Amino acid sequence: MDRASGSIDWQGYRADFPATERLVYYNNAAISPLSTRARSAADAVAAAFEREGILCEKRVFGRVGEIRKAAATLIGAAPEEIAFTRNTTQGVLIAANGIRWRAGENVVLPSVEFPANVYPWMAQRRRGVELRFVEPRDGIVTTEMIEAACDGRTRAVTVSWVQFSSGYRVDLARLGAFCRESGILLHVDAIQGLGALACDVERLGIDLLSAGGHKWLLAVPGIGLLYCRRGLLDELDVWNPGWLGVKDAWNFLDYRLEWRPDAARFEEGSANLLGVAALGAAIDRFLEIGPAAVEERVLYLAGALADGLADRGHELVTPREDDRRAGIVCFRLAGGGTDEAFAALREAGVVASLREGAIRLSPHFFNDEMDMSRFFTALDRSAGRSHKGRSHG
What we know:
This protein has helices at residues 10-14, 36-52, 57-75, 88-98, 119-122, 143-149, 172-182, 201-204, 273-289, 291-311, 338-347, 369-391; strands spanning 24-25, 82-85, 106-110, 130-134, 154-160, 185-189, 208-212, 224-228, 315-316, 329-332, 350-351, 353-355, 358-361. It is α/β, with parallel strands linked by helices. The chain contains twelve helices and 13 strands. The strands form three sheets. Strands 2-8-7-6-5-3-4 form a seven-stranded mixed beta sheet, sandwiched between helices.
């Protein structure tokens, strides 16, 4: 059960992230810092194999099942609807290649998607599938614009929950309802939302969801998850057949290509056990705090950053409305000098990203007001230097 955000010991959770001792870490939309809890979980698996080799296998693999249940709980799914993947891209590949396309069908997607959610769909052109890119207006692609691009030949819509370069949050509940009513499959690249925002795949009407673990989920690179709606499992081809994806996997020489009855049919072979362990530790923390409380905290921190930037006259790329934003705040420096300000922030220990000519900030629940003060002090200093330099030619 979620607790009120104000009753949570955020400083206690902050202490689990050593990077916060010296850095203002506003780059969770790229790669998050690792917590001691996640590292300890991965280290424990490595130590078990170091000490025991195969003798630890039953205990370690048993934990994978527990983590699958936790991941399902996090997104409002059933454990049999969860597959572990290497990254977001693998989940998108499973979805795009698994759909039984008919020539002449189309897939609709924004033209500002991260490439991980473009190339697997682009490759479907060889099967006669049309890609319909929706061009942004004022830098964003809204749910309404996506709906308008669909027609009777639209087989699937694929969209990022939160756009990586603007921080715009798509109205998934509306889009999911539209897709269900229209008989269109909805795939969501959730890597910029999951971990920052509370998720309920059933309520949102999502058919397929892909996410990597190294951003807002606070795990490590090389691990992710795929959600596949139970009723859709047998309507997808298994694009990546592997020995652990079949029903009787441990009967090695009885070759029968009969898929497991759950989403683990997409897992191919040996899992990244260290990555799964780190992801499990991170998910346990989200469930401990409560996803709604995490979302409230992230929106508060991102909103306060946006307010401070607007008050200083900087150009916000990210929408201000609560229902259109998430944890990402993108801005350009007033009067120019964004690149110089980005470099100055890095020198001051503020870790952010530069995306499409804007500085991208992405705070998580472990950030606090002290980080915000350090950030604005460094930014004001850099903005002053930039403007002074420009005024003197």
